Amino acid sequence: MEAPSGPGSRRRVPWNRLLLAASFFTFWTPPTTAQLTIETVPPLAAEGSSVLLLAHNMTENPLGYAWYTGERVENSQLIASYRIATNVTTKGPAHSGRQTLYPNGTLLIQNVNQKDTGSYTLLITKDDLQKERQTGHLHVHRLLQQPSIQVSDPMDRDKENKVVITCNTNETDITIKWICNGQYIKTTKNIFLSEDGKKLTIDPIKEENAGKYQCEIFNIGTSNKSGIFELKAKKSGRLHQREARWLEVTAGRISVRRPLQ
Length: 261
Known about the structure:
Elements: H1 15-27, E1 37-41, E2 45-46, E3 51-56, E4 64-69, E5 78-83, E6 88-91, E7 99-101, E8 107-109, E9 118-125, E10 131-138, E11 140-141, E12 148-151, H2 154-160, E13 163-168, E14 175-180, E15 183-184, E16 191-193, E17 199-202, E18 211-218, E19 223-225, E20 229-231, E21 245-246, E22 254-255
Parallel strand pairs: 2-11, 12-22
Antiparallel strand pairs: 1-3, 3-8, 4-5, 4-9, 5-6, 7-8, 9-10, 12-13, 13-17, 14-15, 14-18, 16-17, 18-19, 18-20, 20-21
Domain Ig-like: 147-232
Family: Belongs to the immunoglobulin superfamily. CEA family.
GO cellular component, one term: cell surface
């Protein structure tokens, strides 16, 4: 097994950590002249997270900055402007209350949503009153709905000494991974996955297969995990029928057929 990596369930980068990254770029100047570029940090943003638009290779000693939505520099699309000499920030018509323009030209957007997807243009006023501008792009990914897992009938598991766990989700264009005791599962001689990854089969059940199981779904920008199912097995490999149980998970949705009492 390997430890889960990549984006987590609704994982978000705190905006103060993003600001620290922005501060680093403020004091780092490339040794050679290069074209102004815009970097989106993080490059893949999930709904509800915070995003920084960082400007690289800016001209020295600028007079001020202004950020606009879209690719045009129009007053109606102004988010905010900043004048260095007076240390004054002015909000524009496109300011939603979630944007912050810092003195180094970095734009912070908090609690992003899919409507924030699009282009953003930075306009820099140089000390010779010439203008320089560059456009960056932001794409916000919709959060995945939490999947649920369903387990084969406990009576059948005890009789056949195998278990089938299904990851139920209506999401499309996703990757599904299975986790046991916090580690991603790899197929073995007795652990099988369906072609679409939705069904995990353990046949036969062995003592080392006991543990807490859940599925995790991924798309390009976000991920989400199901609730947890705990599987217990006797040393002989037989399932503890009455000890196979669901752990109550606050956000989990659970589906199981109980053994007869």
